[in-house]
Amino acid sequence: MTAPFTIAVDGPAAAGKGTISKAVAEHFGLAHLDTGLLYRVVGAKTLTGTDAIAAALALRAEDLAAANLRTPEVAQAASKVAVIAEVRAALIDFQRAFARRAGGAVLDGRDIGTVICPQAEAKLFVTASAEIRAHRRWLELTETGHDVTPDEVLTDVKARDERDTNRAEAPLKPARDAVQIDTSEMSIADAISAAIVAVSDKRPQR
Predict the structure, then answer these.
(1) What CATH superfamily classification does 6-202 receive?
(2) What is the DSSP letter of 16?
(3) CB of 42 closer than 8 Å to CB of 54
(4) pTM of the predicted model as reported, rounded to 2 decimal places
């Protein structure tokens, strides 16, 4: 059996970590988990009146396929429930079990390399300026029919950054040994290439 090889990819919203993570997972033939979806599921359930901690404890893998997880309202709800220590604790085992599956996995989020998988064999921190990230998110939202202004999206991005970096539990920050990739002025192809090179340097020769 192939030994697990965990790749932790952290970074703020709309930095490109999801796109990079999926491409890295495909390149190396690994499973991928967008851990932000776990918090989006919990956040979405709180919008219908469910207690956040109860929602986290009841999380099932099939919940991650829900169709309503990419709306701005759910994104904000996810950011709010992510500061609750009991919610984060309830989701840790799910993430760690996924990370150490046979052959390994790629996990992207905000505290993978620092809290969830501090012993990950490869760690990346993907970032970009708030203005660039807000513009990317605005394009995504308007393409899917959401009526938002660039200024509104920038305000939301900065609010999420503030919560994520200043929360008491597992704040967003690069792991000490993470390779940092700033995608502000990079093409998608170049960012993916940089990530693959960084992971290859850590991956045992097969």
Answers:
(1) P-loop containing nucleotide triphosphate hydrolases (3.40.50.300)
(2) S
(3) no
(4) 0.87
Q: Quote the distance between the C-alpha of residue 160 and its chain's center.
A: 13
pLDDT at 206 over 80: no
Left if phi > 0, otherwise alpha if psi is -120 to 50, otherwise beta: which for 42? alpha
In this predicted model, which residue has the larger pLDDT, 149 or 68?
Answer: 149
Look up residue 173 and give its amino acid.
K
Rounded distance, CA 109 to CA 76, Å? 15
Strand ranges in the chain using DSSP code E only, listed in sequence order:
6-10, 31-34, 105-109, 122-127, 179-182
**Pairs from 97-101 (Cβ < 8 Å, separation ≥ 24):** 98/31, 98/33, 99/4, 99/6, 99/8, 99/33, 100/4, 100/6, 101/4, 101/31
Q: What pLDDT, on the 0 to 100 scale, is given for residue 190?
A: 98
Select from 171, 157, 18, 170 the least CA-distant residue to 75: 157
Looking at the DSSP assignment, which residues form a beta bridge with residue 10? 109, 125
Cα 199 from Cα 204, distance rounded (Å): 10
The dihedral formed by the CA atoms of 20, 24, 30 and 34, expressed in degrees to the nearest 10: -10
- Residue 118 neighbours by CB distance under 10 Å: 14
Q: Is 202 exposed, middle or buried (0-12, 13-18, 19+ CB in 10 A)?
A: middle
